[in-house]
């Protein structure tokens, strides 16, 4: 498996997005508009169409345990690091929760899914969907509860933002169609294909473009710590649970490792901004993990391919 040949087009698309945004060809408002189309229309159409037609016969619900137990462990470790060792925000639970979110939240839709599909093929889609379906809801829910006074927590808004998310609606709808063995009409299926076709390219382009608007200003030590937790410790733990504890097939193990090795997503910065905690730190984590992942993810794929003789 020539990892560089497979991954390099994805990196190039992201780099083009960065250059065009940095040079002013795309301003922040234009990037935001394109982002809304991508995440509210193109990606949901792609996920719904693919999941409705996917082969779900080999799905294993132990994937949840293999992925989320290590994730919660890393989240707790990052929370403890900030809570006990941060110079200015120690014993600040909301700040610690936001920092933990940045250290654990993966950019699965923009980075993990395209790379897994490119390297492993569409047969890994059911595994990706299982992870993506719970990922945001779980981490945003935990962080939101920890970052605010529980008496002041606005449950209706949280539930609306979580369960009326276009991505979750698309995944849930696709699952239902698939499980009920309903065949999509050709016109609808082809329309969804057209809408979803640019999804991955747009997502990668927007990832690069978004980096043009972030800066690393402070908290370098905590940014590096979170990056190590995110890109090294989390994938290592998930490799252990997937391969050595649950004995998943090679493709499933590699998919989970690739997803967990993805950089921190931009949603982490939005959470930090919402709670007014660690905004510069989380922005730095997004930038650093994204840049490092252009090297670390190919290394993970190369290492796993060598071990599993792919």
UniProtKB/TrEMBL annotation:
Keywords: Cell membrane, Membrane, Transmembrane, Transmembrane helix, Transport. One of its GO terms (cellular component) is plasma membrane. Pfam families: Mem_trans. The chain crosses the membrane at residues 6-25, 37-54, 66-85, 97-121, 127-151, 163-188, 194-216, 228-246, 252-270, 282-302. InterPro entries: Mem_transp_PIN-like (IPR004776), Na+/solute_symporter_sf (IPR038770). Belongs to the auxin efflux carrier (TC 2.A.69) family. This is Auxin efflux carrier. It comes from Cognaticolwellia beringensis.
């Amino acid at each position: 498996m020539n990892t560089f040949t497979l991954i390099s087009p994805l990196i190039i698309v992201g780099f083009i997005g960065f250059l065009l945004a940095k040079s002013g060809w795309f301003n922040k408002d234009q990037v935001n508009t394109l982002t809304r189309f991508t995440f509210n229309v193109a990606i949901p159409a792609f996920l719904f169409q693919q999941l409705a037609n996917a082969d779900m016969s080999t799905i294993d619900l132990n994937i949840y345990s293999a992925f989320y137990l290590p994730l919660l462990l890393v989240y707790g470790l990052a929370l403890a690091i900030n809570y006990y060792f941060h110079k200015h925000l120690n014993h600040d639970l909301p700040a610690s929760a936001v920092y933990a979110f940045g250290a654990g939240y993966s950019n699965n839709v923009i980075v993990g899914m395209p790379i897994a599909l490119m390297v492993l093929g569409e047969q890994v889609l059911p595994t990706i969907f299982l992870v993506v379906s719970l990922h945001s809801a779980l981490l945003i829910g935990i962080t939101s509860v920890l970052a605010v006074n529980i008496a002041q927590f606005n449950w209706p808004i949280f539930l609306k933002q979580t369960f009326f998310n276009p991505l979750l609606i698309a995944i849930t709808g696709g699952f239902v169609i698939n499980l009920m063995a309903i065949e999509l009409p050709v016109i609808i299926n082809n329309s969804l294909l057209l809408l979803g076709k640019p999804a991955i390219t747009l997502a990668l382009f927007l990832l690069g473009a978004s980096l043009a608007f972030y800066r690393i200003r402070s908290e370098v030590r905590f940014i590096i710590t979170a990056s190590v937790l995110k890109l090294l410790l989390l994938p290592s733990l998930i490799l252990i649970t997937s391969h050595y504890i649950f004995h998943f097939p090679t493709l499933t193990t590699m998919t989970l490792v690739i997803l967990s090795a993805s950089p921190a997503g931009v949603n982490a910065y939005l959470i930090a901004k919402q709670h007014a905690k660690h905004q510069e730190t989380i922005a730095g984590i997004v930038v650093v993990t994204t840049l490092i992942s252009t090297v670390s993810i190919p290394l993970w794929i190369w290492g796993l391919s060598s071990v599993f003789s792919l």
